[in-house]
Design goal:
Keywords (chain B): Transferase
CATH architecture of the largest domain in chain A: Up-down Bundle
Low-confidence stretches of chain B: none
Number of strands of chain A: 10
Order of helices and strands of chain B: EHEHEEHHHHHHHH
Helix content of chain B: 55-70%
Shape of chain B: globular
Strand content of chain A: 15-25%
Shape of chain A: globular
GO molecular function, one term (chain B): glutathione transferase activity
Helix content of chain A: 40-55%
Structural class of chain B: alpha+beta
CATH class of the largest domain in chain A: Mainly Alpha
Largest interface: A-B, 23 and 22 residues
Largest sheet of chain A: 4 strands, mixed
Oligomer: heterodimer
Largest sheet of chain B: 4 strands, mixed
Radius of gyration of chain A: 24 Å
CATH topology of the largest domain in chain B: Glutathione S-transferase Yfyf (Class Pi), Chain A, domain 2
Mean pLDDT of chain B: 92
Distance between the termini of chain A: 74 Å
Radius of gyration of chain B: 18 Å
Distance between the termini of chain B: 52 Å
Strand content of chain B: 5-15%
Mean pLDDT of chain A: 83
Order of helices and strands of chain A: EEEHEEEHEHEHEEHHHHHHH
Strand order of the largest sheet of chain B: 2-1-3-4
EC number (chain B): 2.5.1.18
Catalytic activity (chain B): RX + glutathione = an S-substituted glutathione + a halide anion + H(+)
Family (chain B): Belongs to the GST superfamily.
Number of domains of chain A: 3
Chain lengths: ~300, ~220
């Protein structure tokens, strides 16, 4: 095993202990430059540690990769090779208060992943140029950039985050349970059109949308049952996907002037909203009621001038 | 895996069912196929897919799953031979991105092109062409997944069979061989693969079926 220091700070300590005849465990402690230090020393300070497995056949070399920011746990050598990219830079391009962007913020926060949030606005050419470059198909947010590689579409981004950073899993381990969770995410995606319709229509179309929304909420009420979260004891991918309901549906109802998600009809969902909003990773990432109300009121007025709204 | 029971509830004319069939065949999984009559839905379908009451439904050892892309991911995770999704998370994300693109953008536009008329149809047809041009730009290598048949091929290859049928019935060109040479070549290649080709419904039967459903739809719309 060789090491190569590249940079002007940091401590490299290696200890090896023999656990058994067949397994050699190596523990590395690498101190990477902190984000603040990289402002002083431009270009971030990297440590390159070269690990060569010279053990004879049938022996596994186990490595524990850990920095002050990340702990990737104990892995076999082939897995270590794949892990290096997890410590790469994470950027999220978003626009306030997009519920799709919030999904990604929440997922990153729940998993404790360090990221830089780049908030833009659609009428600013600098930002739209970025979107055109990184999301040429849809030109929308959110876009996740990991080591400069872009991923678009919130459900796709969530799966990528789940696979790349497996800590604090958002999906169940069992393949069938995973498929069931994905089914519900797909359902929630498909039915979001009814909620959009609820916000932007009036008259007969609005009545139809309200009816559809109630039907979807009924299904969700049955699905949450008496669970704390859709994911069970802790937040899962469906909570993240439906989190926009906890974020802003109440505000939207107030702007539209019609309450649908009431505690008497949907006690389970009502409780879920409280649980979700109070979750430590979520509560510091929720805009306030007044600013959301102002935003959605203005939005609705551009779609439905006040002399037409019922 | 011996002793396991895998049942696919489907419809011969559905491309979404065909996706699942392809995945099962490519992986060499033994399964039982049950043809559903959507005009007279079976108790089994209503029990296994109460939310949508649609096909495909995969039942594995009594446990039902719906939504074709969800089923494809389940099949890939449960039966590890002939992996469909790439191993690398970023490549996986690309595969998922393109599959969803087809379902969210291409399919609705294709349905409108097929069932509607006049300006709405023309506009939808134009949208289909634009979406296909975008797909053209996304192809890397022989198949979407590279050199071997993968997730994206199975998720979107059916377009290469269904779109020419739509073109023939409504008389609008959608796959432009000059503007979309890679896509056109890829569709042909994919549909000629022996495992894939064997599952495809006969062209005349599918053509007539779609013609008939279009007649019913256009005569019943006000």
């Amino acid at each position: 095993m060789k090491e190569n220091k590249n940079g002007n700070s940091g401590i490299l300590a290696i200890s090896a202990c023999r656990v058994s005849r067949y397994v050699l465990a190596l523990v590395f402690v690498l101190a990477f430059a902190s984000p603040s230090a990289s402002n002083i020393f431009p270009g971030f300070i990297k440590w390159h540690v070269f690990i060569v497995d010279d053990l004879s056949n049938n022996q596994n070399l186990l490595c524990h990769c850990k920095s002050s920011d990340d702990d990737l746990g104990i892995q076999t050598l082939p897995q270590v090779v794949e892990l290096h990219h997890r410590m790469g830079e994470v950027k999220l391009l978003g626009v306030w208060p997009s519920p799709y962007v919030y999904r990604i913020i929440w997922a990153l926060e729940v998993k404790g992943i360090k990221y830089e949030y780049v908030q833009g606005e659609f009428h600013k050419p600098d930002f739209t140029d970025l979107l055109l470059k990184y999301n040429p198909v849809y030109k929308k947010v959110p876009v996740l950039l990991h080591d400069g590689k872009p991923i678009a579409e919130s459900t796709v981004i969530l799966e990528y985050i789940e696979e790349t950073w497996p800590q604090r899993p958002l999906l169940p381990q069992d393949p069938y349970e995973r498929a069931v969770a994905r089914f519900w995410v797909s359902f929630a995606e498909e039915k979001s059109i009814s909620f959009m319709s609820f916000f932007v229509t009036v008259g007969e179309e609005f009545q139809k949308a309200t009816k559809e929304v109630k039907e979807v909420l009924k299904v969700l009420e049955e699905t949450i049952a008496d669970k704390r979260y859709f994911g069970g004891e802790d937040i899962g991918v469906l909570d993240i996907n439906l989190g926009w309901i906890a974020l802003s549906f109440g505000v939207i109802e107030d702007v539209v002037g019609v309450k649908v998600l009431v505690v008497s009809d949907f006690p389970g969902l009502f409780t879920w909203i409280q649980n979700f909003r109070e979750h430590p990773a979520i509560k510091t990432n929720l805009p306030s009621y007044p600013e959301l109300f102002t935003y959605y009121k203005q939005k609705r007025e551009t779609i439905i001038p006040s002399d037409v709204a019922s | 895996m011996a002793g396991e029971s895998v049942t696919l509830i489907g419809l011969w004319s559905s491309p979404f069912v065909l996706r699942v069939k392809w995945a099962l065949e490519v992986k060499g999984i033994e399964y039982q196929y049950v043809e559903e009559d959507l005009s007279n839905k079976s108790a089994m379908l209503l029990q296994y897919n109460p939310v949508y009451k649609k096909v495909p439904v995969l039942v594995h050892d009594g446990k039902p799953l719906a939504e074709s892309l969800v089923i494809l991911e389940y099949i890939d995770e449960t039966w590890k031979q002939t992996p469909l999704l790439p191993h690398d998370p970023y490549e996986k994300a690309k595969a998922r991105f393109w599959s969803r693109f087809v379902d969210e953008k291409c399919v609705p536009a294709l349905i409108t092109t097929f069932f509607k008329g006049g300006e709405e149809q023309q506009k939808a047809g134009q949208e289909v062409r634009e979406n296909l041009k975008i797909l053209e730009g996304g192809i890397e290598g022989k198949h979407f997944g590279g050199e071997k048949i993968g997730f994206v091929d199975i998720a979107i290859g059916w377009l290469g069979y269904w779109i020419p049928i739509v073109e023939e019935i409504v008389g609008i060109n959608l796959i432009d061989k000059e503007l979309m040479p890679k896509l056109d070549a890829w569709f042909h290649d994919f549909l000629e693969h022996p495992v894939i080709k064997e599952c495809i419904p006969p062209r005349d039967k599918l053509l007539n079926h779609n013609k008939a459903s279009r007649k019913v739809s256009t005569s019943s719309s006000t």
